[in-house]
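Hey, I'm writing a tutorial for new members on how sequence and structure tokens pair up, and I'd like a real worked example in the thread rather than a made-up one. If someone can provide the structure for the chain below, I'll link this post from the tutorial.
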Amino acid sequence: MAFEKIGRFFGLAEDDDFENDGYQAEGAMQNASLNQSNKVVSINGKYSQPQKINLFEPRIYSDVKDIATHLLQNQAIVVNFQKMDEVQSKRIVDFLSGTVFAINGTIQRIGDNIFLCTPNSFTVEGNMAGNIFEKFE
């Protein structure tokens, strides 16, 4: 008897004498309809548009608001401070450090007076320069 059930399970035996109570069939149909109603998720994930890296060359402190807005929109930024005095550029770096901290991102110095700020959705590999505050200390 047990071998017959195993044979029926694997489709090897005839199931003429098998009793179907209908309950299992309804449950199987409900499970099938639940599986068909699952939502489809895009393979591209959260971002359907390509990621952007914005370049900025601020001249006054008030430019930092526009720079921070791009960070808050999950866009990476590169900031070049070559046309700004050291005191103003330090204030902007402090402001951007706070913005990056708030969005759980990173800020890195990638050159003389050039910084890269990225939200947590970006991954940056490698190290071009040491500590970001090296110049300002």
